[in-house]
Specification:
- With 199 residues, this protein is of the alpha/beta class.
- It is built from six helices and seven strands.
- The protein has a single domain, classed as Glucose-6-phosphate isomerase like protein, domain 1 (Rossmann fold), CATH 3.40.50.
- A five-stranded parallel beta sheet has the order 4-3-5-6-7, sandwiched between helices. A two-stranded antiparallel sheet has the order 1-2.
- Helix 4 links the parallel strand 5 and strand 6.
- The relative contact order is 0.19.
Length: 199
């Protein structure tokens, strides 16, 4: 794997455990699985993860921050998503997904994002379904046990571990700002991967 093509050095991907999946795999995630460890955990291909993060960053950069919504029910992602929102201005919805927020125009809290990013499509399956019903493009961080129904772009990764989520969103936030021309190079991004994994 050519190191210069990676969004972060290979050791950062490995250190964060971004490639360590679950003991379950779905048909949808099979193409991204590199091997099975002796303890039964599936291991994702780091090259595929990097490629999908690159594609996702370019796709996200086509939208203004106020038109993007990150949805995260998983508690391990709350502080991370809050930081992404603070840095980029992207909207967030953490905790329980309020029914109808994307579909019922009569609700006071109704919102109309043009793109949604789902941290884990299993606990947030209702948000995925509503996004699909409303024709909103959906990007989902997908572990080995997730499926791609009603998702437009999957980013294969460990979507449960704090370090893994921190690295994913560090990359997406930095690349979003670079591709929107808010910053010109990595060194102008004032945050570290460690900043994203703090509580």
């Amino acid at each position: 794997m050519a190191e210069e093509k990676l969004l972060v050095p290979l050791e950062e991907y490995l250190k964060a455990g971004i490639h360590i999946g679950t003991k379950f795999k779905t048909e949808d995630m099979k193409p991204f699985i590199y091997k099975v460890r002796p303890d039964g955990l599936y291991v994702l291909n780091v090259e595929d993860i990097n490629k999908r993060l690159d594609i996702a960053a370019s796709f996200i950069a086509q939208y203004n921050p106020e038109d993007i919504l990150i949805i995260c029910r998983r508690e391990s992602g709350w502080s991370i998503v809050n930081l992404v929102s603070k840095i980029t201005g992207i909207k967030k919805l953490i905790g329980r997904y309020p029914p109808g927020i994307l579909t019922n125009v009569r609700l006071k809290n109704f919102i109309e994002p043009k793109l949604i990013i789902i941290v884990d499509p299993w606990p947030d399956k209702n948000a995925v379904r509503d996004g699909f019903r409303m024709g909103i493009p959906t990007i989902a961080l997908s572990d080995t046990n997730n499926d791609s129904r009603e998702v437009d772009l999957m980013i294969p990764c460990n979507n449960k571990g704090k370090k893994s989520l921190a690295l994913v969103f560090y990359i997406l936030a930095r690349e979003y700002m670079k591709r929107k021309k808010i910053i010109n190079e990595d060194s102008e991004f004032k945050y570290t991967i460690e900043d994203f994994s703090k509580d």
